[in-house]
Write a structure and sequence with these properties.
Layout: H1 3-9, H2 42-55, H3 60-64, H4 66-72, H5 77-119, H6 123-138, E1 142-149, E2 154-161, H7 166-169, E3 172-174, H8 178-186, E4 190-192, H9 205-214, E5 219-226, E6 229-237, H10 246-308, H11 313-324, E7 327-331, E8 337-341, H12 350-359, E9 363-365, E10 368-375, E11 378-386, H13 393-431, H14 443-452, E12 461-467, H15 473-487, E13 490-494, E14 497-503, H16 507-522, E15 527-534, H17 540-556, E16 563-565, H18 571-576, H19 582-600, H20 604-613, H21 618-625, H22 629-643, H23 650-665
Parallel strand pairs: 15-16
Antiparallel strand pairs: 1-2, 1-6, 2-3, 4-5, 5-6, 7-8, 7-11, 9-10, 10-11, 12-14, 12-15, 13-14
Helix pairs in contact: 2-5, 4-5, 5-6, 5-10, 6-10, 10-11, 10-13, 11-13, 19-23, 20-21, 21-22
């Protein structure tokens, strides 16, 4: 076929129609008159094949192979040129479609990431998911995330994915140091094709060592931005050099924006959880506290009603033991037991009681709980709880409230006791009035009044006068009144001294006991002089006068802090006592000698009298007795055995000499041994 024939059969190019897509070159069939060796429809057929391949989403390689196929089919050179231009246009369209498709896939991945992050509630899980998705989307070897530390003014490695280096996983980057520190400082994304040789960044030994140990080259970092605040940096990195495209940077930046919101949400949720947990704990504490207060208030009301109904300390102790499921003992200020329930005898230590008084709280020591019973700062006693190794706060408060109720009961008892003590004191005053000054005193009425107070004056009674430091006399009076109630007697204050009337036929023993016990209770010496015994009210005034002289004599004899009666003061007691028993005095001093002479018919008493009458001279005594001096010595040795080795000391000699004189004066010196 000639060239003219080919020009006649060529299809003319269209002169109008839609403009080609931007970036796609317009391709027209060969012009009329150009040479061709194929059928007139070959360019159109090639164009249709290219369009079919694009529609079928054929690979780019298959599109690029179309010109070669046309040459193999013998298509003329002008048509081949046209087909090549059409193929280039088809490949451009394919690249645009691939770009759109890739962008669509990235958007879908970002939406999926946002959904996944929104579903997470744990901050660590959120951070791990962010890093894992970043590594997947960018196809990098490693992805990691750092968070800013405002206090240390740096950014630290928080989560990694794909990392194998422990040193790298523990890196901290100062603001402006390395690629990540620069991102954290400037809030801008930065990328490096090969960080190890990139001198745009401030390299440090620690960062370079960590990057080298991990083997990283290409690194991309974008800021985690929350409003105006930068909270960290998100990274993607490869172990080979990599040029990060703007699309990759934009993709990681979009993921970082989602991640920042997710981190903030997780952090807020975690803070909310923490706040809710604290609120629940506070509510539980408040409920427990309210329940404890309710139980304590109810127990307080029960104990208060018990006290107001007139229950005694034993009833209150039993009720406290039931409420606290343990044993209870109540003690007075001197440590004496007032009541006990559900436990054996137990006494709190002085140190524990002092600590409870100071703190105002129950104290546990030696397996028991002790609470001081206080009225303001005044100690009224103590209460002890046994059988409870552990005491929860509610029970501890209940125990302390029980101490308050016990204090109220003891105060009421003290008020009653004080009233009773006033009545008893008035009776004691009336009993100690000198009968000579009150001739019309009704002894029967006094006896009846005493009986109403539980005092039986028909029994033998002793009178004791007690003395202490003036500042402590009010406490001495209080303790003596307590002792009087215990003994079934009377106590009061008379002429500046504390006086006790108590049933006793041994006044000396009573005086010594009072001096010792009350001295311990007050922590200071207490001197007690006693006289008695006597029955009925008539002799009590005389006993009081004698006891007063006795306590005065104890002070004069430098025996402050001791207790004695007149008989125990020797010849001074004889001189002081209005009712002194002279015979008893002689018997107490000379009794062993008198008995020895009576049993054996010896002359020890006469020898002893001669010895003292002759001025304690052995030679003059043997002349007076008409015996050998050795006989006098032997008899006096026997006296020493009977009266004690101190018989010839000045004090004992005075006692013995006076007893000898009294013995002769009373007319009992007749017979042997005179």
């Amino acid at each position: 076929m000639t060239a003219g024939h080919r020009a006649d059969t060529r299809t003319p190019a269209p002169t109008d129609g839609p403009a080609p897509a931007e970036g796609v070159k317009r391709t027209s069939p060969p012009a009329v008159g150009s040479q061709r060796t194929s059928a007139p429809a070959e360019p159109e057929a090639a164009a249709r094949r290219l369009l079919d391949l694009l529609a079928a989403d054929a690979p780019a390689e298959e599109l690029a192979s179309q010109p070669a196929r046309s040459r193999a089919a013998g298509v003329a050179a002008p048509d081949i040129t046209w087909i090549e231009e059409a193929t280039e246009t088809a490949l451009s369209v394919r690249r645009v479609l691939d770009q759109y498709r890739r962008r669509e896939a990235e958007l879908v991945a970002l939406f999926d990431t946002a959904g996944d992050l929104a579903a997470l509630r744990d901050l660590d899980a959120v951070l791990r998911a962010i890093v894992r998705r970043a590594r997947t989307l960018l196809g990098s070897d490693v992805a990691y995330l750092t968070l800013n530390d405002p206090l240390a003014r740096d950014t630290f490695m928080r989560v990694t994915d794909g990392s194998v280096s422990a040193a790298f996983q523990q890196l901290r980057l100062g603001m402006g140091e390395g690629l990540g520190g620069l991102v954290a400082q400037t809030a801008r994304p930065y990328a490096s094709t090969d960080y190890r040789t990139d001198h745009r960044y401030r390299h440090t030994g620690t960062i370079d060592d960590g990057v080298a140990e991990e083997g990283l080259c290409g690194i991309l970092g974008v800021p985690l931005r929350l409003g105006e605040e930068i909270i960290g940096v998100l990274f993607a990195a490869d172990r080979t050099p990599r040029e990060f495209t703007p699309d990759a940077i934009a993709l990681l930046g979009s993921l970082a924006d989602h991640a920042a919101v997710a981190i903030d949400s997780a952090r807020l949720l975690d803070e909310t959880r923490t706040a809710l947990t604290r609120l629940e704990a506070a509510n539980a504490t408040a409920r427990a506290h309210g329940e404890a207060l309710h139980l304590a208030s109810d127990a307080h009301d029960r104990l208060t009603r018990l006290v107001l109904r007139g229950a005694g300390i034993d009833d209150v102790a039993a009720e406290i033991a039931v409420l606290l499921r343990g044993g209870v003992a109540v003690h007075d200020t001197d440590g004496s037991e007032l009541a006990r329930s559900g436990t054996g005898p137990v006494t709190p230590s002085a140190e524990t009681l002092a600590a409870s008084r100071t703190d105002g709280r129950a104290i546990r020591a030696d397996g028991v709980w002790t609470s001081a019973v206080l009225a303001g700062t005044e100690s009224l006693g103590s209460i002890v709880l046994t059988g409870r190794a552990d005491l929860p706060e509610a029970d501890r408060r209940l125990f302390e409230r029980a101490a308050l109720v016990t204090a109220m009961l003891l105060l009421m008892r003290r008020s009653v006791a004080e009233t009773e003590d006033r009545v008893r004191g008035e009776l004691l005053d009336d009993l100690l009035v000198d009968p000579t000054t009150a001739p019309r005193r009704d002894s029967g009425g006094l006896t009846l009044r005493a009986r109403r107070l539980g005092v039986d004056l028909s029994r033998p009674h002793a009178v004791a006068v007690l003395d202490s430091e003036p500042a402590l006399r009010p406490r001495l009076a209080e303790e003596t009144a307590r002792r009087a109630r215990r003994l079934g007697g009377l106590a009061g204050t008379r002429h500046g001294h504390v006086v006790l009337l108590a049933p006793s036929d041994e006044p000396g023993t009573l005086a010594r006991t009072l001096a010792a016990d009350l001295g311990r209770a007050l922590g200071t010496p207490v001197t007690a002089g006693a006289a008695g015994p006597a029955r009925g009210p008539e002799q009590l005034a005389a006993l009081h006068a004698e006891a007063l002289r006795c306590v005065t004599a104890l002070h004069a004899l430098d025996r402050t802090g001791e207790g004695a009666d007149s008989a125990e003061l020797g010849f001074i007691g004889v001189l002081l006592g209005d009712r002194a028993d002279v015979g008893a005095y002689v018997e107490r001093v000379l009794g062993p000698v008198l008995a020895y002479d009576s049993e054996r018919g010896t002359d020890l008493l006469r020898t002893l009298r001669a010895y003292y009458d002759q001025g304690a001279s052995l030679s003059r005594a043997k002349d007076a007795l008409h015996v050998h001096v050795n006989t006098v010595v032997q008899r006096l040795d026997r006296v020493a055995q009977l009266l004690g080795p101190d018989w010839n000391t000045p004090a004992r000699a005075l006692e013995i000499h006076l007893a000898l004189r009294v013995h002769r004066l009373t007319g009992k010196g007749a017979g042997p041994g005179t």
